[in-house]
Amino acid sequence: MKRILSLIILISISVFSVTAQELEDSTLWKIEGNGLEKPSYLFGTIHITCDATLEDDVKKALNETTQIVMELDMDDPNMQSKMMQGMYLKDGKTLKDFVTEEEYKSIDSLFINNMGMSVKLLENVKPFFLSSMFYPKMIDCPMQSFELELTKIASEENEEILGLETIEEQINIFDDIPLEDQYKDLVRMAKGNLEKDKAIFSKMLKIYKDEDINALIDIMNDDTYSTMSKHQDILLEQRNKNWISKIDEYVKEQPTFFGVGAGHLPGENGVIQLLRNIGYTVTAVID
């Protein structure tokens, strides 16, 4: 359960940046050079999917590495409790302080129709947690996750899972984004009853299957999504920059398999280019 709950954070924060530099169609990249004796690998994931089966090249990369690093330490026993502590609005605020009566009714109907419960029970929960509850509803199949699959493999191989950031750091990211923008997205989801969201997510799954990480960018630059389109510097670019020194340390210690949201890979402030900037050779692994 704690792993499923932690995916709420991963899914909410995994967005995609603008890029002028086209990259090869691949979700798996090899990290070499800069004095490394053995390569490490960078794998772009999608946090919700119908099929999280790992391809042979990904399995090979896992076999060649000795530790797995994801956005979060997915086997942290305190993950759930830490997340719960950051779920709630401050200063006694509730949903009704940010939306009109009509908007509240739309959100309540969305919860009743899709969750079988009223939003009245969750009025003091932060908006991005409320929105994230509907992400599994975007697909017409049982939800699978590459993060959970990688966690399973690490457990089977007795390998430790490490994180590039803490659950507290991920939660705090949204505290820097105006609540008005976050509630705007929730209201739009409610008024559209998830129809546009489902259509966009279906397109995203197709693009991910094709490993066209550049094409994901246009979807996430859609200004329909206020939180993502207006605040990519907070949600993506600064996080990428913060990760580079940690990735640098990990790969120097031992061959490492990194699994992060695919949208973190492209762009001049994407992980691939930032690693190249500090001297690493990062190349696509093409079947």
From TrEMBL:
Endpoints of the signal sequence: 1-20
Keyword Secreted part of the UniProt annotation: no
InterPro entries in the record: TIKI1/2-like, TraB/PrgY/GumN_fam
Cofactor: Co(2+); Mn(2+)
Protein name stated in the entry: TraB/GumN family protein
Superkingdom of this protein's organism: Bacteria
UniProt keyword list: Glycoprotein, Hydrolase, Membrane, Metal-binding, Metalloprotease, Protease, Signal, Transmembrane, Transmembrane helix
Phylogenetic classification of the source organism: Bacteria, Pseudomonadati, Bacteroidota, Flavobacteriia, Flavobacteriales
Location of the protein in the cell: Membrane
Protein's organism: Winogradskyella aquimaris
